[in-house]
């Protein structure tokens, strides 16, 4: 969600709540959430994990990376699919 669009939306709808929700195909709809605030951040992050899910940013060897370092997003918890349809190796 572009920060400028979030701010425009909040300005046009005073008193409204605006949430940025993120979820990849492998998960059950949304896995993270962020509450957008008027006059807020210069960017809108994907936010914090919802209940019963965990998020991890991992590097090439599946090791944790330092805060704000680039990596791949990995998810854990009950909101994930159990494999891929007709592709058990994945």
TrEMBL record:
<protein>
    <submittedName>
        <fullName>AMP-binding protein</fullName>
    </submittedName>
</protein>
<dbReference type="InterPro" id="IPR000873">
    <property type="entry name" value="AMP-dep_synth/lig_dom"/>
</dbReference>
<dbReference type="GO" id="GO:0043041">
    <property type="term" value="P:amino acid activation for nonribosomal peptide biosynthetic process"/>
</dbReference>
<dbReference type="GO" id="GO:0005829">
    <property type="term" value="C:cytosol"/>
</dbReference>
<feature type="domain" description="AMP-dependent synthetase/ligase">
    <location>
        <begin position="1"/>
        <end position="85"/>
    </location>
</feature>
<dbReference type="Pfam" id="PF00501">
    <property type="entry name" value="AMP-binding"/>
</dbReference>
<dbReference type="GO" id="GO:0031177">
    <property type="term" value="F:phosphopantetheine binding"/>
</dbReference>
<dbReference type="GO" id="GO:0044550">
    <property type="term" value="P:secondary metabolite biosynthetic process"/>
</dbReference>
């Amino acid at each position: 969600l572009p920060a400028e669009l979030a701010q425009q939306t909040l300005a046009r709808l005073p008193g409204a709540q605006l949430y940025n929700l993120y979820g990849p195909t492998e998960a059950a709809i949304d896995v993270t959430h962020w509450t957008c605030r008027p006059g807020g951040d210069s960017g809108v992050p994907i936010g914090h994990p919802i209940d019963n899910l965990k998020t991890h940013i991992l590097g090439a060897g599946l090791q944790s990376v330092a805060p704000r370092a680039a990596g791949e997003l990995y998810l854990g918890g009950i909101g994930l699919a159990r494999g891929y349809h007709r592709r058990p190796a994945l």
